[in-house]
Amino acid sequence: MAYQTSPYPEWSWSLSRDHMFHTCKRQYYYHYYGAHGGWLMTASDTARTAYRLKQLKNLYILLGDAVHTAAQKLLDLRETQQAYPDEAAVTRFLRQSLNNAYLESKKQDDWWAYPKQYTMLHEMYYEGELSPARVETVAARMPVCARSLLVSDTWQELARDHTCTVVEVEQLNHITIHDTKVYVKLDALYRRPDDIWVIADWKTGRISERNREQLSLYALYVHECYGVPLEQIEVRTEYLLDGICDRTVPIGEELDVIAHKIRVSTESMKQYSADDYYNRPLPEDSFHGIGEPSTCVMCNYRQICPAAKLG
Hints:
Layout: H1 15-23, H2 25-34, H3 45-54, H4 59-79, H5 87-105, H6 108-113, H7 122-127, H8 132-151, H9 153-160, E1 165-168, E2 171-177, E3 180-186, E4 188-191, E5 197-203, H10 210-226, E6 233-239, E7 244-248, H11 252-269, E8 273-275, E9 280-281, H12 293-296
Parallel strand pairs: 5-6
Antiparallel strand pairs: 1-4, 2-3, 4-5, 6-7, 8-9
InterPro entries: PDDEXK-like_dom_sf, PDDEXK_AddAB-type
Protein name: PD-(D/E)XK nuclease superfamily protein
Keywords: ATP-binding, DNA damage, DNA repair, DNA-binding, Helicase, Hydrolase, Nucleotide-binding
């Protein structure tokens, strides 16, 4: 049977989708509609280009990905009762991950042919080189993140207490809110012997209020999916750069706020839909680009966006 795909992507919602929608409508269009089906041999040149540009990652994102992979590997070692690495080993893993990405980014033809098999750095694709200042900043963050990960409250608790039961690690799941599929991916979810469910989220950036929305959504997911009372949920944000663990217990009002946000956001997004059943968007030119240099310079789609302004 020949492989088939829908002409339009499945309708869904996530906080990252909401953020992109409110940042730039044209970027939102390319990411969620223009790139759809771009992996197919029958796709238009525009769709294939948008799909490839969608895969670009900058150095900061790659560092975050590498740290999350390191945390996942630690949890895997815990489950298989193997020895844990020290700070130097974790730092080497982070450095090697980014070095590999840099080397792959020098093979643009290979990446263009197989964008899912190779990594392409945003900086390398558009500038042809890495900014020395950015390289220095990211290099300085690696040992800090490695050390903070190993001494973090979450990892120390899991490493010491093997009666804690790990429930989820980096699994893409969803719940339905206001008839909309809402995607979540928890860094880690585990249950302690005292029947407290801990949601852990590793952050490699600075402290931000936006993270609270994300954690409220995670709490709503655990509450709805596993039937856990709110008073038995502990939400932790491990800010690795600052060495801070922010602990909160969700309250009903916070969950009501995020559910309301999803409804309002969904209504706004659907104003750009020509057909709700198929999730067919309005024409591309209905999605206006922000044309703001500080936003455009970091956008994956600036190559194909007529609104891109880089000063």
